[in-house]
Amino acid sequence: xxxxxxxxxxxxxxxxxxxxxxxxxxxxxxxxxxxxxxxxxxxxxxxxxxxxxxxxxxxxxxxxxxxxxxxxxxxxxxxxxxxxxxxxxxxxxxxxxxxxxxxxxxxxxxxxxxxxxxxxxxxxxxxxxxxxxxxxxxxxxxxxxxxxxxxxxxxxxxxxxxxxxxxxxxxxxxxxxxxxxxxxxxxxxxxxxxxxxxxxxxxxxxxxxxxxxxxxxxxxxxxxxxxxxxxxxxxxxxxxxxxxxxxxxxxxxxxxxxxxxxxxxxxxxxxxxxxxxxxxxxxxxxxxxxxxxxxxxxxxxxxxxxxxxxxxxxxxxxxxxxxxxxxxxxxxxxxxxxxxxxxxxxxxxxxxxxxxxxxxxxxxxxxxxxxxxxxxxxxxxxxxxxxxxxxxxxxxxxxxxxxxxxxxxxxxxxxxxxxxxxxxxxxxxxxxxxxxxxxxxxxxxxxxxxxxxxxxxxxxxxxxxxxxxxxxxxxxxxxxxxxxxxxxxxxxxxxxxxxxxxxxxxxxxxxxxxxxxxxxxxxxxxxxxxxxxxxxxxxxxxxxxxxxxxxxxxxxxxxxxxxxxxxxxxxxxxxxxxxxxxxxxxxxxxxxxxxxxxxxxxxxxx
Length: 606
Description:
Shape: globular
Distance between the termini: 79 Å
Mean pLDDT: 84
Helix content: 40-55%
Number of helices: 20
Number of strands: 19
Low-confidence stretches: 239-244
Structural class: alpha+beta
């Protein structure tokens, strides 16, 4: 089966640590692994009588192998994790939503900013987290505004200030932008934030008490009162969040596998408090062992952040697995402190583990219940439409305001429900404003005219509209270039436009279907229709807002694209431009005093 000399390759393979990448006939990476001894590990895949069906399927598809040597096993583990994230091989266990973790960022500025962050950590500063949800980050930021007056505003807004903003009046910011606080006092508050986010709120309270007493002795009662208020809020927060635990920094991993679905639940404990929790559903190849799933998950979860900010001092595992000691060494090296991975059978940590396992099991029950509901809806829809199978559905909608800024949306549903990675928007151009029929024809042409992969052709296409919109779809597919032809259905709203009164139109409107308002099949159609509507409106609003932000400046002679972009970026959008005076406009790079005056006079009708 191999397209290379396997025997010669294996004989020449090094016995040092490293990473191997297995490729198929299309040169796609299908598996990434690490090894203490590359020759022994890779050779083991090609022995006779391999018991695991997953390994047999993998070997059958191997047409080439690439290797990278490393100095140590730890380096191999880190490289393996990076390559799995890069290639997403189909035979590896994958943690699919690693990029979704929200963090709190404390920037590396003269006056550091505290803000929400998600995605690649490219901005200089300190990252604290991960948090279980964006809501948890927002809640934490709101709380810290009440305790620590550290700025949370955008950099452009901060640079453009000439007087304190409303946050200063509310005592939620110390206004470093206009020097209402000196550098040392601001740094002191930033240090408190750093300690608080590191889970050391008790230490923060202790230091605040000392500073309050020092301020009282110095008869600086106003400053002492400020420290007192901070202490009261922090103490109250500790009372609300405290649990009867003795462990300050701990992650507890719950694990449950049932009916072909695996859930991993992480309980995050910091400073004796349950900070939050999160459940993951890794993508797992068939016949994978639980120990393999846990090993892959832990590596990808903890090693995906190179600064080690996610890694606690101790991780409680649901069971022992073979590569546990190896990961412990790697985590210790990455975080530059001793990390301990262990299993427990009694005590407080065991109670935490039972709670995490319980949550993992509950997550599976909920997810499978939701999946059963989706499956039921699909089955009833197949029965209604008399189709053997529905693997993919798409729905189109048009959105505009009085014919302007027309946007078409296309949403995709597969057997698991919405597939948001496949969603698309189209900026409709070259038509008469307000012509929804022409807009629909434009969107269909954009979506399908160059399609060559039949697996991407939907089984059903829903058109949000009546006979006119449906006729555009039928006209387009008359000269369809592929063998597979989708079923076209118009979703017409009733006269009152209330949900449950929709009529399904087929065959140019000559055939109609009216489903009961309680029908699960209708609920599925309403779901995909509403998604397309929401997605189209969001795109239209973005386009409209962007045009409005720029149109005012476009009317000013001598202010071209680069100058408009500079002004909007420097002053934080059109609201910042409208609020700026001539002096502030003149500070924008590339804006001369004459142009600044021209912009100001135009915006204020002078």
